[in-house]
Design brief:
By secondary structure, this protein is an alpha+beta fold. The chain has a domain at about 60-170. Helices cover about 40% and strands about 30% of the residues. The protein contains 4 helices and 7 strands, in the order H-E-E-H-E-H-H-E-E-E-E. It has helices spanning about 1-25, 55-60, 80-95, 100-125, and strands spanning about 35, 45, 60-75, 125-140, 145-150, 160-165, 165-170. The protein has a 5-stranded antiparallel beta sheet. A hairpin with a 7-residue loop joins strand 1 and strand 2 (about 45). The longest helix is centred in the C-terminal third of the chain and has 26 residues, at about 100-125.
Length: about 170
């Protein structure tokens, strides 16, 4: 009786493993078949057809035209030099106006105005274009936007293709 239980104990995990593996079988993937060549050893081949590209099947190529191109700018952090120089120059110019307490008020207003103006000039000079946003109206009427590092080959009104998440001239 003891030998019979050992056999059952060994057979149970094997049976369970076989059931689990058969449940994991992928029916969509064809099994390799052996092709016999009369002059060489057996060769493994797949009887499967070429699978369609899932990206192309779910996203057919779209066409459209460029409706707008906008620069994307980035600004460096202002150093404060523009505000400092503007404040000094504004203070000097304000000091030239009026006399007595009016002169003091003009100096303060000139310094503050010069600082604000100098800071704005520095901000404007420190901005630079880092890319472009290209807005495209597709042939089916959708409006889509794409980021590009350059637009040398595109212009407003140009016909384009939307391929792989990007836009190209048609």
């Amino acid at each position: 009786m003891m030998a019979s239980n050992r056999g059952s104990l060994l057979a149970a995990p094997l049976l369970l493993s076989a059931l689990c593996l058969s449940a994991c079988k992928d029916d969509d993937v064809p099994a390799p078949q052996v092709a016999m060549n009369s002059q060489s050893a057996p060769q493994r081949t797949h009887a499967a057809q070429a699978a369609p590209d899932p990206v192309r099947a779910s996203h057919p190529e779209l066409r459209g035209h460029v409706v707008d191109i906008e620069p994307i700018t980035a600004q460096d952090a202002p150093s404060g030099a523009g505000a400092a120089v503007g404040g000094v120059l504004g203070g000097v110019l304000g000091h030239q106006v009026g006399g007595g307490s009016g002169r003091t008020a003009a100096t303060v207003v000139g310094a503050v105005g010069g600082a604000v103006l100098g800071n704005n000039i520095e901000k404007h000079r420190s901005s630079h274009v880092v890319g472009y946003s290209v807005n495209v109206r597709t042939d089916n009427g959708d409006l889509r936007s794409f980021q590009r590092s350059d637009v040398k080959d595109l212009s407003v009104g140009a016909n384009v293709r939307i391929v792989g998440g990007g836009v190209q001239p048609a």
